[in-house]
Amino acid sequence: YTARAVLAFAFDLPTIFLETNIRTALIKHYFPDSATVSDKELEPIAHAVLDPSSPRRWYSALMDYGAWIKRIEGNHGARAAAYAPQAPFVGSMRRLRGALLKKLLADGSLEVEATAGSFAPYTYAECKKAAAALAAEGFAEYVDGVLSIKS
User: Fold this and answer.
1) What are the pLDDT digits (tens) for 31-58?
2) HEC states along 90-109?
3) How far, in Å, are 1, 23, 147 from residue 124 at the CA level?
4) Which among 74, 107, 132, 144 is least buried, having the fewest CB atoms inside 10 angstroms?
5) What per-residue string of b and e applies to 59-87 under the rule 16 or more CB within 10 Å gives b?
6) What is the distance between the alpha carbons of residues 132 and 151, in angstroms, rounded to a whole number?
7) What was the pLDDT predicted at 2?
8) Cα–Cα distance list, 40 to 26, 111, 128, 138, 150 (Å)
9) d(CA 41, CA 75)
10) Residue 57 and residue 101 in contact, taking contact as beta carbons nearer than 8 Å
């Protein structure tokens, strides 16, 4: 998914990728009576409806449309075989990672132990785990308890 999305959004190249809002739109219109729909069934439809002259614009619109459908009608994408409900954002590691990145971008670096209290209700151990994950994924450097912008 990620590589194809980068091709479409960063380079405006016509490629097929499926994500939750795209699945929602395609399933609503092309599989209204199906209980479960596989990505193998969705990919030819996605290929047929893709605007190859402007994939970036097409996918932006399609994803917005899928999000709108979810707000109005509910999540047709829940009928996708690939569907997995996402854990709530509040209290999640995703939220903590975002908070660490925001602080890191504002300050340039941060000592995780000294600043862990500002990320309540997360514990110092959770902050260390999130910092290590950010470093492992290449978003930052984490050395001797200090998280810093990767040079």
Assistant:
1) 999 999 999 999 999 999 999 999 999 9
2) CCCHHHHHHHHHHHHHHHCE
3) 33, 38, 13
4) 144
5) beebbebbeebbeeeebbbebbeebeeee
6) 16
7) 82
8) 13, 47, 40, 32, 39
9) 18
10) no
